Amino acid sequence: MRRLGLLVGLLITVTACGGAPQAQETTPRPTWAMAIHGGAGTIPRDIDPEVRDAYVAGMTKALHIGADKLAAGSTAVDAVEAVIVELEDNPLFNAGRGAVFTSDGRHELDAAIMDGRTRACGAVTGVTTVRHPILLARTLMERFPPVFMAGAGAEAIAAEAGLEQVPNTFFDTPKRRQQLDEFLKRRAATKGGGTVGAVAMDSAGNLAAATSTGGLTGKLPGRIGDSPVIGAGTFADNASCAVSGTGTGEQYIRHTVASSIAALVREGGMPLEAAAHHVIDDVLDPGDGGVIAVGHDGSVAMVFSTTGMYRGAADSSGRFEVKIWE
Amino acid sequence: MRRLGLLVGLLITVTACGGAPQAQETTPRPTWAMAIHGGAGTIPRDIDPEVRDAYVAGMTKALHIGADKLAAGSTAVDAVEAVIVELEDNPLFNAGRGAVFTSDGRHELDAAIMDGRTRACGAVTGVTTVRHPILLARTLMERFPPVFMAGAGAEAIAAEAGLEQVPNTFFDTPKRRQQLDEFLKRRAATKGGGTVGAVAMDSAGNLAAATSTGGLTGKLPGRIGDSPVIGAGTFADNASCAVSGTGTGEQYIRHTVASSIAALVREGGMPLEAAAHHVIDDVLDPGDGGVIAVGHDGSVAMVFSTTGMYRGAADSSGRFEVKIWE
C-alpha cells in the first residue's frame, strides 16, 4: 500500500486530479456510455456454441435496451434499471428468474441501485417474492430513508408500492436445480456466477450503477453478498465513477471493492482502468471475479481475474461490443 | 471534490504517504491506543447530572476493560469485542440490552467487527434473540465465509456456535418503550442515538473496529443501518485506520463514511484527524453524527457534528479520558 501511495503521488503529477489516461486525451469524450455484466467465473472456452450464442444474445439485447435509452436522453439511473429488469427476466442469468437456489432449495435475491449525482441509493437483501428486486431497490432509493432493507420488511414495501410479486418457485429453473443437487452432493461452496450489473454515464454527465443477484448456489439462508452492499458490489459517484462487481462476495465486502476503485480515481487521481486493475489484480485474490465501471469522463473499464466475464459496452461514438473471454 | 484532490496533492508533498500530522512527529508513538463511543446526538448540556454520571461511568468502565486488555498484550480484535460486550450489557446504550424498539415493538440488532490486519470481517443484521450480537459477528469473521448474515439465518449460526440466546423481550427497557410511544404518536423518524463502537491499535500494531446497535426508534422491521455495513459504519485496515461511526445510518451508507476516511488516509496521505473532519464536516450534513478512529500510528480522532458524542480514548502514554461535549 505504501508503494501504491508513491505510485499515486507520481500519477498525480503526471495526470492531475481525476484525469483520464493520456492516450485518451485525443479521443473525443463520449456524450453517454454504458457497460453491463452477466457474471464472471470459470467459463470454459469450449462452451456449447448454442449456449454461448444464447448468452451473447441475452447480453446484446440488454445492452441495446440501455444504449437506446441513453441515446434517447434517458437518465443513467433509468438506463441501468432497464438493463437489470431485462436481465432479471432472462433465465440464463443468476438474478430474478434463473436465480440460484439456497441450501434449503429456495431463492433469496439481493439488489442495489445508486445515483452518482446525489449518491442516493437503495438496496435489498433476502427478497423472495418480488419479481424484479432492482425495482424494489429503486423504490427504496426514491423513498429514502430507509435505503437498505432485508427480507419480509423489504417485501412489505414492495407490496405497498404495487411491485409485481410472485411465488418463490417463479424463480426456479432446471439448470439451477441441477447446480443445487451437485452442491448438496459435494457440500462445497461454489463461486458466484451470473450476477448481473450495469453502469452508465448519461448525456447530462450523471453516473449510475445497479447490480442484482441470487447469490451463491447452496448459500445459507440469510447470507448477504456484496451486490446490495453499497461500496462493495455497487457504487456510483459523479466525482469518480460508477462500479458494479461480480465474484466472491465476501472478498468484495472486506475490500470494499467498488468504493475502493472510486477512491483511487477520486483521491488518488488514478485513471479508471488502472484503478480497476489494481483492485482486481493486486487487492483481490486471483479468480475472485470482475468489475465493470464507467468514469466521469465516459471511459469504460471491464476487468476480471476469472477465465471469463459476460460483458458488454456501448457509447455515443458508436462502440457496441459484447464479449465473454479475451 | 476537485478542490480536495488538489489539497490532497499538496498534503502528499508535505507529509508523504500516510504520514501523521507534523505536530505529532515529536510525540512518541503510543504502543497501543483505543477509542470508544456510545452514540452521537442531541445531548442537552443541562442533562440530569445523575444521568450524565451514569453515562460517564458506563463509558469509563468499558474503556477500562479495553485499555486493560491492550496494556496486557491482547489483540485489537479481542479488545474491541470486550468493550462492545460490556456496552451491549449496559441498558443505557442502544445496543444489546437497552436497544431501541422497532415500529412493531420488537428489537432488531445489527453489529459488525473487522480485523485490520487481514481485513477479515463479520456482520449481522436483524438479530432478535442473540444476547451479544458482536459475538455473532465475531463468529462469522472466524468462520468466513459467509461474513454478513441477516435474521433467522444469522440466529441459526448463533445457536450452532452455542452463543447465549434470549427472548426478544430481554432487550426491553422502560426508557426505550417510552421513546417508541413518543415515536408512534409523532410518526416521525428519530435520529440514531446510543449506538456503541470501539476502535483499537494493539501492541503488535494491528487495528480493529467494532460497532453494535439497535438502530432507530420506530424503524421499519428489516431496516439495515450503517453499523453492519463494512465501509459505512465499521471499517479497519492496518494500512490506514480503524473507524466506527454513529449517526444517520442512511447517510453513512451512501457516503461510505468509514472506508472514505480510510481512503483519504491511505490513498490521499491525509492525516487521520483531517480525514475524519473532512467526511463529517464537508461530506455529511450538519448533525448527521460522528466517528471514532485510530490510525496506524496510534493517533486517535473523535469527530462529530452533533451537540455531543459519548466517547472515550486511552493509550499507552497514560491518556485516559471520557467526554460528552466540547
Write a brief caption for the model.
2 copies of one chain form a homodimer. The first copy, chain A, is an alpha+beta fold.
What does this structure look like?
Two copies of one chain form a homodimer. By secondary structure, chain A is an alpha+beta fold. Chain A has one domain: Glutamine Phosphoribosylpyrophosphate, subunit 1, domain 1, CATH 3.60.20. Chain A has nine helices and twelve strands. In chain A, the strands form two sheets. In chain A, strands 4-3-2-6-5-1-11-12 form an eight-stranded mixed beta sheet. In chain A, helix 2 runs antiparallel to helix 3, helix 3 packs antiparallel against helix 4 (133-143) and helix 8 packs across helix 9 (272-283). The longest helix of chain A has 23 residues, at 49-71. The first copy, chain A, is globular and about 50 Å long. In chain A, 62% of the residues are buried. Residues 1-25 of chain A have low confidence and may be disordered. The interface between A and B is large, with 59 and 60 residues.
